[in-house]
Each structure stands twice: as structure tokens, then as C-alpha cells.
């Protein structure tokens, strides 16, 4: 028996990092949008006693990666040992703010739930997703959402698909924990910014013309101060025809929004001549389907 699914990347159309919580995390308020830049997961069942083997053309620790953790949490919740081979075809860059690892974990849980219906109750699935990481529940449930809390509170949105994207990965990663440290330090003693609320962001996303979206990213200033190359990429995106450009998450990937497909394709061509990792993408209108064969 085999199950296959796609694990999409996401961008943060908007990202506000709010106050630090008692548990050490920060609250956030963000609009997540999945795009058609995918990793692909295929799970093949193996004979009893084979254990879980993960394969892919990229380096990862067999015992500590998030996909293996997803399997272990599912096994524990279902009180069932699983024997399988998981093949992961990676396209989403690591450490880029595109959620590749979280998406792979959510896709793994979706595949296991399809392979073993009823073994793990739905409320337990939610616990598994939250244990795996803040972004994982989003990828499991929807393709666009207003996300709050530390990332676990999800309000699904009907996705807007009336724009096109180009994503550039600069070839290096940004350490998220350091990004938070830089942001906290920058804010010490400063005035609190007036930020849009949930209703404001939902109205903006649903109703305003895309060119008038007033979206932003709290990490923007501290990241471009540390990595001027990212600012150069954003400037190049605007020069190539984008009506909006920013980092996704804390970076390092940069995305640009374009009004029309031909403009995004032309922008992709311009940026591809300068940068090695450039992707033409579109927003997804639904999360990928898991297929059992």
C-alpha cells in the first residue's frame, strides 16, 4: 500500500510579532498563504519489523528530523508500530521562512491518517500537530488563514488567487531565534507601534484591491540590517514589476507579488539571470489532496 501527497510552501503576506509570552514564545498575528512550490512525500508500507526509514536527496538526521517525530507521535497516540519507507522529494529551501519542515510534518500526519483511518482520534491529531510545531496545524487544515497565538490559532480564509508570485532564496539561512533576539533588542525602550487588528487584516485581505494591501513584516528592518543582500533582492523585485515585496517569516526567502501572470513570468526571467534559486509560483486555492494507491 502506498500513499502520496504534496507539501506546499507558505508565505506570510503579513506578519506582526507581538509580545513575549510566559512560555517564552511570542504571540503573532499573520496571514499565511500556501503556494504551489511543493515537496513531495510518498509512503510505502513495508513488512513487519522494518521500522521507519526516511529517504531523500538531502542531508538530515534519521533520528531527529520532524518527519520522524511525526511518525513517532502518531505511533504513540495510536499504540501501533509502523513499518514504512518515506520518500521526500525536496524543493522548498531549508531555513527560508517558507515552512518546508512544518509542511512536510503536516503532510506526514495526513498520509498516516489516510493509511490508518480511525487509529488516532481527530482530537489527538490536533495534539500531534501542535506538538510538532507552531506552523504545522495550518498546513494540515487549510491553504490560507489568519494565524494567531504562537501559530496554533487558525481562522481559515477563502484564498485570494488574483495575483502571482516570484520567490527568491538567497542561498543562506536566517536563524529564527536570532531574528527574535534582534527584534526584541530593537524594541527595547521604544514606542509601541499601532498595528492592525484581526478584523482589519481580514477585511484588507478579502475586500481591498491587492495593490492597496497595507501588509508588512515585523522582522523587515532587523533582517535587512543584518543581511543587506535581502534588501537588494526586494529592490530588484520592485524593479522587475512587483507591486509588493517582502521577506517570508524571518527570511531568508523573499517574495514578490505581481498583478498579472505575464508580469510575474517576466520578473522571474529578470531575477533568474541574477540569482540561482528563483521560483515562479501561484497561491493555492485549497490544500493538496492525499492519494491512497
Instruction: Give the helix level as a range of percent.
Output: 25-40%
- Kindly report the average pLDDT value: 94
Structural class call reads: alpha+beta
Pick out the low-confidence regions: none
The overall number of domains is 2
In the CATH scheme, the class of the largest domain would be Alpha Beta
Distance between the termini: 6 Å
* SSE arrangement, N to C: EEEHEHHHEEEHHHHEEHEE
Please work out how many helical segments DSSP would assign.
Answer: 9
CATH topology of the largest domain: Ribosomal Protein S5, domain 2
How many individual β-strands? 11
| Beta content | 25-35%
Molecular shape = globular
CATH architecture of the largest domain: 2-Layer Sandwich
Q: Roughly how many Å is the radius of gyration? A: 19 Å
Structural commentary:
- This protein is of the alpha+beta class and 293 residues long.
- The chain folds into two domains: 2-158, 2-Layer Sandwich (Ribosomal Protein S5, domain 2); 164-281, Alpha-Beta Plaits (2-Layer Sandwich), CATH 3.30.70.
- 34% of the residues lie in helices and 28% in strands.
- The protein is built from nine helices and eleven strands.
- It has helices spanning 66-78, 100-115, 122-132, 136-141, 176-187, 198-207, 220-226, 228-239, 261-272, and strands spanning 2-20, 26-45, 52-56, 84-89, 144-148, 153-156, 164-169, 244-247, 254-258, 277-281, 291-292.
- The strands form two sheets. Strands 1, 2, 3, 4, 5, 6 and 11 form a seven-stranded mixed β-sheet that branches. Strands 8-9-7-10 form a four-stranded antiparallel β-sheet, covered by helices on one side.
- A hairpin with a 5-residue loop joins β1 (2-20) and β2.
